[in-house]
DNA polymerase IV (Pedobacter planticolens), 372 residues
Amino acid sequence: MENESRNSVRKIIHIDMDAFYASVEQRDFPEYRGKPLVVGGSPEGRGGVVATASYEARKFGIRSAMTAKKAQQLCPYAIFVRPRFAAYKEVSQKIREIFSRYTDLIEPLSLDEAYLDVTEDKLNIGSAITIAEQIKQAIKDELHLTASAGVSINKFTAKIASDMNKPDGLTFIGPSKLERFMEQLPVEKFFGVGKVTAEKMKRQGLHTGADLKQLTEQRLIQLFGKTGKFFYKIVRGIDNREVQPHQETKSISAEDTFSYDLDKGEELTDWLVQIATSAFKRMQYYELYGRTLTLKVKFEDFKIITRSMSFASKITTLEQVLDTAQMLLNNLDLGDKKIRLLGVSFSNFGEVKARGKEDSHQPTLFPNANLE
């Protein structure tokens, strides 16, 4: 088909820095090297959440968005340090400069990962694998950090490939092996398939891409909603999304549609933490710290509402994001309604205007404010 033919000629690289925040800390402070290091949160006081953890800490099961208290329970002698976002941003900009030597088609996802389209590269190298190798080596030589790379003909597969041989890995999935690779891939390894969706798939007897491939597009839509259309295409290696360079940002967001409708409870809270953390990481990358946080909710009857909270100053910490998003969710009167989708977005990036004496520095709530 025409779309598939066009998709097959693309050369896409996904670069993902290895334990980025923790690696920068271990690079800059030798006393942290080889030790379980947790960036973000503190087991004392309010606690907070983990931004990232070194590979030494991950061996104990510590992961991002986990509470600091839980992380300490898993590894009592872990070292906790406060994030230095200015330092991470500076390193991220240098990584971006390395990318720019090869292409201008760069789509950053956060401070530590990006897609690159090198179908036509600036240096006329021609080989995406060679370009990925050179980028990884430049990051190692110039910044003393490691990155993992995935190389393929589309964004979805490149993203999966970059995670296959971490740390410091490089995985190529070429056109001739793409469909076979997707058939063998466990459903929980599909990027975007969380724990809840994976469990639902397995209850349906769907354990690999090959199992998904046996179902018709209509059946996948019945099981997983509009995401079923995506599953139908991706197990056949079809992903025509283009790498989109950064443009002027009016809002920054992340959202997810669940494979089945959720009640208000612990499972919903877990999803909210993941989604809010993803949105916050994107805001960090662009250094566009908004003063308004909006929670988007789609119910089982497909009705959509938003709840927003605005602050007098910019939202700059993950703790503030999680607390605000959770408060907005808690204030919803669900009744018997179940939730199909959650989203978190940030806006209102401009400078604060002069405020009168009657203005309060406390946050203000705007029910049903649509800021998209």
Observations:
- Residues 38 and 80 are 5 Å apart (CA to CA).
